[in-house]
Each structure stands twice: as C-alpha cells, then as structure tokens.
Design a protein that fits this description.
Blueprint lengths: L5 E5 L1 H5 L6 H12 L2 E3 L3 E4 L2 H14 L5 H13 L6 H7 L4 H21 L21 H9 L14 E5 L5 H14 L3 H8 L3 E3 L28 H5 L5 H6 L1 H13 L2 E5 L5 H7 L7 E6 L5 H14 L7 E7 L3 H13 L3
Parallel strand pairs: 1-4, 1-6, 4-5, 6-7, 7-8
Antiparallel strand pairs: 2-3
Helix pairs in contact: 2-4, 2-6, 3-6, 4-6, 7-15, 8-9
Length: about 350
C-alpha cells in the first residue's frame, strides 16, 4: 500500500502498453470512421457503418431527413486529422460547431470501444474472465504489485486510501483491470472486488465510453462491447471536449483537489500538452515529489515540461521537492522508481 498520498496522472502512452492506439494511429482510425461517403446518395462507400447508422438514427429521432451536414462534418474532421495534435485539440478548435463536436464524439466512442475489444484486457467469451498474464509486461503489473505489497487478504478495506487516478483516456481499463486483478490475486468473488474498486478515487476529465455494468447497471456499457448503432449516440454524450471540461466545475474541483492534496504526483504515458496542464494547475499545494515518464521527448522539450510541471503546482516553486522524468516505458519506469514513489525519503 502507498504510505504517502499519491495521484497517478495517466495518458495515452499508458494504454499503448496493452495495444491501444495513440497519436497518429488513433487520429487515423477516427478519420477512417467519420470519412463518410456514398454511392448513388445512399450506399456507403467509406466510413464506419455504426457511425453512419447512428447519424441516421439521430435524424429519425429529430424528424430530420438531410444528413449531409453530418456527413460533411465527418469528412471535415477526417481531413483535419492529418494536421491535428489530437482529436481533442481539433474538437476544441471547433468547439462552437455543434455538429462537428457531435460527429467527432461518435468517432471517438466507436474507436475506443473497438480498441477495448482488441486490447490485452479484452474479456474471454464468457465475459467474466481476463487473461491477466497477457498484461504482465505492461505497467498494470508493477502498479498492482506496489498496491498490494504487504497487504493481507483479510485487510483489503482501505487498499486505495492513499492513492487516486486522473486518467485522460476515454477507456475504462484501470477500473476493469483492478476488479479482475483483485479478484484473481486475493481469491475473492467479483462482487467483493467490485466493492473495493468502488472506493477508488478516479477522475476522467475527458469523460469515458460509459460506465461498466458493475459500476452503473442502468445505461452502462460492457468493456469492449460491440454496440448497436442506436446505443452509440448515448455513449458519445459521455465524452467531453476541453471546453466542456472547463465548464464542469464539480469535476474540475475534484481533479484539482486530488492534485492539491497529493504528496507524490506520478505522470504515466502523459504528453504534457498545454490544455491538459492547464486543467491540472492548482492555486496552492503542499510539499510534494514529482515523477513521470518522458519516453521519446526531446531534451529541450523536457526542460520546458519540467518548468511547466513546477508552475502547475502553485505559486511557490519550493513546494516541489524534485521532478524526475525518465525516458522509459511506463512499465520499466514503475519498476525502476518503485521505492522512491512508495516511501518517504
């Protein structure tokens, strides 16, 4: 268990370790899903069939007949993906255009659910078990070992007391993994494991592709579910743009409170983008240590990022005892920094 109050800030690079797409690969997938074209005005020649059907379902519900503004928006999004830092940046740039935002969210939802289905955490056909050995080389395994070191089966309450997550990913991998890992390791049933994970403080600033069935039985979405097109619009409403995040005062307050109260902040697979760093910035914070991955980040950029991190922690630069960014994968990083993260120095 964690001795100090620790918050993990998780980005796309962390999910990459279990076969999720990121960067140009993800924007390319989204582009292909929303680049909607037709033959003879009706027969689709490109685009994801679920996205097309979701748009038609939406039109029927609104009593509209002309889908061209939606299909055109999809093609505009697809065209912009080659230049975009991310889909989030693109939707922020077009925040005032409701149709662009809505079609973009459909593309995100379809892409992330498909990625869950293809990931190393995808459940077996019975939808009950996960092959945890498949993620043994990812960051999930060393994290779970850190979490459970010295913990006995009879004393699981409070296992998440000193730690929390802020994840900028739309997937539900953290919750999904922890439920299955706790059940497997401690030989408890899924209901008991679910009750424990319910105690975990976790924020999804960008939203997520629905709650898992055990989190919220009504209106939930199973991990990697092959959803019907009529379900996709509702799932898409649970995804937020940067503008929507800033307007969600409760979420923003909870997220920043986790940062303010932390004694250790750990960035995993995070890109340190300006928009996200703005969301994570707090007015004041106590003394803390900072750790993070910086795989593939150049030395000049890393220097600026270190300064941005310190500035995000409030006006007193002396509150940050140290910033250690390592050019490692998330898995290698947690193995290398296990003890400094876990213990008082």
């Amino acid at each position: 268990m964690f001795e100090r109050r620790t918050v993990f800030i998780v980005g796309a690079g962390a999910s990459r370790e279990i076969n999720f797409p990121m960067g140009a690969e993800l924007t390319g997938i989204i582009a292909n899903k929303v680049r909607i074209g037709f033959r003879d005005g009706w027969e689709p020649t490109s685009g994801d069939q679920r996205v097309i059907s979701a748009i038609r379902h939406h039109l029927n519900q609104k009593g509209e007949r002309d889908g061209n503004p939606y299909y055109r928006a999809g093609r505009d999004i697809a065209s912009g993906m080659a230049q975009a830092i991310s889909i989030d940046n693109y939707l922020h740039a077009h925040a005032e255009e409701e149709i662009i935002t809505w079609v973009g969210k459909l593309g995100i939802a379809a892409s992330i659910l498909e990625a869950e289905q293809r990931s190393k955490l995808a459940p077996n056909r019975d939808r009950e078990t996960v092959d945890l050995s498949a993620v043994s080389n990812s960051w999930y395994t060393p994290f779970f070992q850190m979490l459970t070191e010295g913990v006995q089966r009879t004393a699981l309450d409070g296992i998440f007391d000193n730690m929390a997550f802020i994840t900028f990913n739309y997937d539900r991998c953290i919750e999904h993994y922890l439920m299955h890992a706790l059940a497997n390791y401690f030989r408890i049933d899924h209901q008991e494991a679910q009750a424990l994970v319910h105690q975990l403080r976790i924020e999804h600033p960008y939203g997520q592709v629905g709650h898992l069935p055990w989190q919220k039985p009504s209106g939930s979405t199973a991990f990697g579910k092959d959803v019907h097109s009529s379900e996709l619009p509702e799932i898409a409403t649970q995804i937020r743009t940067f503008t929507e995040r800033i307007e969600d005062g409760d979420m923003l307050a909870r997220t920043r409170r986790l940062i303010s109260e932390a004694e250790v902040v750990v960035y995993l697979g995070f890109s340190y983008g300006d928009m996200n760093m703005e969301l994570l910035s707090v007015d004041q914070a106590g003394e803390r240590s900072i750790f993070g991955t910086s795989l593939g980040i150049s030395a000049p950029n890393k220097k600026v990022i270190e300064r941005d991190i310190v500035n995000s922690m409030g006006p007193d630069p002396h509150a940050v005892k140290s910033v250690e960014l390592a050019d490692m994968t998330c898995a290698d990083f947690l193995r290398a920094y296990w003890k400094p993260i876990m213990r008082w120095m």
